[in-house]
Design a protein that fits this description.
Alpha-D-Glucose-1,6-Bisphosphate, Chain A, domain 3; 15 helices; globular; 4 domains; single chain; disordered N terminus; 5-stranded mixed sheet
Length: about 500
């Protein structure tokens, strides 16, 4: 709650008090990405957030909406940004419900009371230097065109202002000096708990190590697990926007050392790591081994296809070749989408039940099988695994996962464009790839599926770099696929080719 902030983020009601002077700075169009708004805090000052809020108001009004929930994550700037957005919506006669510090899934959950309208101030798993905004309109996340429209409208709003930037409430904000404790919304947490308890039925309790990574999801997640009868060893479950250890990103194995240590020390059944806003999850088995997203997605496919045979399972272009193969083996219909949790949720909602589950390599998992809430919730995904495992009293998590073979792969690796035209590079891969013994996909970047694995190269939406990833069933095959991609570029783009060979 805003009144829980210490003096370093003071809240003083000053009517028409100037927060900042207009400047000649360039509007940060680059923070408007394919599926949300995200960038450096210094590029998202009060004036920019104020303008974005007005642009968002217009988007909601255009669709006939008049009520909204607003939440924010653990980041130091998040209450400040959320307050600006709240003030703008209230002045535009919206009925606003503030959620204070919460997870993004909790915002989605609360939005059911506002006709599916909600805004979340969050930069998800990004480092402390970043912040951003996610939103839904009538339960739908914005498409890229809608996001770019917000950018254009916000820029135009700033240009049209004759007076310095003004708001109704002044917040004196200094990230470097900020020292405060976020307070969770107990009412929201309790209703969220109730929904989880009604959906998930554990047939046996578990000893769980829960790592909240100092984000906004850990505190309530710990309460949910305890209510379900689990013994919880809580790590970094208090919101702390300083992120004293590292960015709240569980996809980096180096960030999960503490969780592994606690699993081994307490002989826990599993570990659950949530990202900064709780919509992504990484699981670790009782041996301290991270369960890869590809294997976990395969497990979810198995779970959903057992109760809904022959239905569609959706996954993004960064997922392993194995995922599609397993879905087919189980009698399901695999469907590949471009990367982005908003695209995933949109597809599932429009499938009218045809697609019963969707997942991303980044750790977003969405159930559409008549259970859950239709959005990505890291805790809920973990609970579905625990429920499934609880039905097999003699099995450990590692034994359950043994049905899905280990893969050999590189993580998402960022490589420089080296001042080249990204589209020209992708076109070269496409041209050379057409003559390879591989299936070529252009859903998102260029992906080549070989018999034993795949490789993908994508141009960034936010910077001068590519993202590459390679996966195979054997180290030799992995190296061969990586070499194939490098050889396609070695003549014209030798520096990019060299970076590909170094991807790990």
């Amino acid at each position: 709650m805003y009144n829980h902030l210490k003096l370093t983020i003071g809240v003083v009601k000053v009517v028409q008090r100037m927060l900042m002077k207009r400047s000649n700075k360039i509007f940060p169009f680059h923070i408007f990405r394919a599926y949300d708004i995200r960038g450096k805090v210094e590029q998202m000052d009060g004036e920019v957030i104020y303008a974005i809020a007005h642009a968002l108001v217009q988007q909601y009004k255009t669709q006939g909406q008049s009520e909204i929930v607003i939440g924010y994550d653990a980041r130091l700037s998040s209450p400040y940004f959320a307050k600006i957005i709240e003030d703008v919506f209230r002045t535009q006669n919206f009925k606003v419900k503030t959620l204070d510090c919460c997870s993004t899934p909790q915002m989605y959950f609360a939005a059911r009371e506002t006709q599916g309208n909600g805004i979340m101030v969050t930069a998800s798993h990004n480092p402390i230097s970043d912040n951003g905004i996610k939103w839904i309109v009538q339960f739908e996340p914005p498409c890229p065109d809608k996001i770019q429209q917000v950018a254009q409208d916000a820029n135009q709003f700033i240009k049209n202002q004759k007076d310095p930037f003004k708001v109704q409430t002044e917040l004196i904000f200094d990230v470097k000096k900020s020292q405060y404790n976020h307070v969770i919304n107990l009412e929201l947490c309790q209703s969220y708990q109730k929904a989880m308890l009604e959906d998930i039925q554990l047939k046996r309790p578990f000893k769980v190590v829960l790592d909240g990574l100092n984000g906004s999801a850990g505190a309530c997640a710990a309460l949910v697990l305890k209510k379900m009868g689990c013994e919880v060893i809580a790590l970094r479950c208090q919101a702390n926007g300083h992120f004293p250890d590292h960015a709240p990103d569980p996809s980096q194995s180096a960030h999960l050392g503490k969780m592994k240590q606690q699993i081994m020390m307490h002989q826990a059944d599993l570990g659950i790591a949530l990202d900064g806003d709780g919509d992504r999850v990484v699981l670790m088995d009782e041996t301290g081994k991270i369960i890869s997203a590809d294997r976990l997605l395969s497990l979810f496919a198995q779970m959903c296809l057992q109760s809904h045979p022959g239905q569609e399972i959706v996954f993004d272009v960064k997922c392993s070749t194995m995922v599609g193969q397993i879905i087919k083996k189980m009698g399901g219909k695999p469907h590949m989408l471009r990367t982005g949790s908003s695209f995933l949720r949109q597809y599932l909602r429009k499938s009218k039940g045809r697609a019963v589950f969707g997942g991303e390599y980044a750790g977003h998992y969405v159930f559409n099988d008549g259970r859950g809430f239709g959005y990505d919730d890291g805790l809920y995904a973990a609970l579905r695994v625990m429920e499934y495992l609880s039905e097999k009293p003699s099995q450990s998590l590692s034994q359950l996962m043994s049905a899905f073979p280990e893969r050999f792969y590189t993580e998402d690796t960022y490589i420089s464009t080296h001042n080249t035209n990204p589209q020209a590079v992708l076109q070269e891969i496409e041209r050379r790839g057409n003559s390879c013994d591989a299936e070529l996909s252009k859903i998102d970047g260029i992906r080549l599926d070989f018999k034993n694995g795949f490789g993908i190269i994508r141009a960034s939406n936010t910077g001068e770099f590519f993202t590459v990833r390679f996966d195979a069933d054997h180290p030799t095959h992995l190296n061969n696929i990586r070499q194939t991609f490098a050889s396609m570029l070695s003549d014209r783009y030798p520096m990019i080719a060299q970076d590909i060979l170094l991807a790990h």
